[in-house]
UniProtKB/TrEMBL annotation, chain A:
<dbReference type="GO" id="GO:0006621">
    <property type="term" value="P:protein retention in ER lumen"/>
</dbReference>
<dbReference type="GO" id="GO:0046923">
    <property type="term" value="F:ER retention sequence binding"/>
</dbReference>
<dbReference type="GO" id="GO:0005789">
    <property type="term" value="C:endoplasmic reticulum membrane"/>
</dbReference>
<feature type="transmembrane region" description="Helical">
    <location>
        <begin position="153"/>
        <end position="173"/>
    </location>
</feature>
<dbReference type="GO" id="GO:0016192">
    <property type="term" value="P:vesicle-mediated transport"/>
</dbReference>
<keyword id="KW-0675">Receptor</keyword>
<keyword id="KW-0256">Endoplasmic reticulum</keyword>
<dbReference type="Pfam" id="PF00810">
    <property type="entry name" value="ER_lumen_recept"/>
</dbReference>
<keyword id="KW-0812">Transmembrane</keyword>
<feature type="transmembrane region" description="Helical">
    <location>
        <begin position="55"/>
        <end position="77"/>
    </location>
</feature>
<keyword id="KW-0931">ER-Golgi transport</keyword>
<keyword id="KW-0813">Transport</keyword>
<keyword id="KW-0653">Protein transport</keyword>
<keyword id="KW-1133">Transmembrane helix</keyword>
<feature type="transmembrane region" description="Helical">
    <location>
        <begin position="121"/>
        <end position="141"/>
    </location>
</feature>
<dbReference type="GO" id="GO:0015031">
    <property type="term" value="P:protein transport"/>
</dbReference>
<protein>
    <recommendedName>
        <fullName>ER lumen protein-retaining receptor</fullName>
    </recommendedName>
</protein>
Length: 215, 10
């Protein structure tokens, strides 16, 4: 464990707490893409298949359970909660995210570290996470003004993987045979997808204006 | 030897 990875995990956790706060406090999920939340639940369920077979640390196991649990709770809230589900932007959240799942799975079948069930699903989860934010970014552009908590959620979610990139660089130089090409390349793509969001987020913060994404 | 290390990252 290193400070970059720990910061990344904490930033990721903060993004989830901010999203839970928004949904719980406002009893609304307007501006949140259910499709991105479903993709993230799939990412965690397929990435942590080793949850019960490999033990690294209490921290690692607890965080896996928190990520899996929170993503399922958020999907449940947006689908089933009698009040929250009414505020879901059903007609705006129309990204065909099944294509993202299929594309990631096909790529995982082609590019993986080892042709085993667990490794293919691990690679699938890495590729899927890189593009899982797309429905959310499209929804933000369509829904025009973005409320603060939603903006902060996306900001922290995008930032966490940037910390992981620093972690991979650090591990590359400190551990002789550390090479995580799949994670690194996907992580770079994932962070790059947030580039324009970060730009508009910074502009809105500098001018102290509401976050506006160009349609 | 590029043994795939077990995935210790979240």
């Amino acid at each position: 464990m290193n400070i970059f990875r720990f910061s990344g995990d904490m930033t990721h956790l903060i993004s989830i707490l901010v999203l839970l706060l928004k949904i719980y406090a406002t009893k609304s999920c307007s501006g949140i893409s259910l499709k991105t939340q479903e993709l993230y639940a799939l990412v965690f369920l397929t990435r942590y298949l080793n949850l019960f077979t490999e033990f690294f640390s209490v921290y690692n196991t607890v965080m896996k359970l928190v990520f899996i649990g929170s993503s399922l709770v958020i999907v449940w809230y947006m689908r089933m909660h009698r009040v929250v589900k009414l505020s879901y932007d059903k007609e705006l959240d129309t990204f065909r995210h099944y294509f993202l799942v299929v594309a990631s799975f096909v790529l995982a079948l082609l590019v993986h570290e080892k042709f085993t069930f667990q490794e293919i699903f691990w690679a699938f989860s890495i590729y899927l996470e890189a593009i899982a934010i797309l429905p959310q970014l499209v929804l933000l552009q369509r829904s025009g003004n973005v409320d603060n908590l939603t903006g902060q959620y996306v900001f922290f979610l995008g930032s966490y993987r940037a910390f992981y990139i620093l972690n991979w660089i650090y591990r590359y130089f400190t551990e002789n045979h550390f090479a995580r090409l799949i994670s690194c390349i996907s992580g770079l793509v994932q962070t790059a997808l947030y580039a324009d969001f970060f730009y508009y987020y910074f502009i809105s913060w500098k001018n102290n204006k509401k976050l506006q994404l160009p349609a | 030897t590029q043994q795939p290390q077990s995935h210790d990252e979240l």
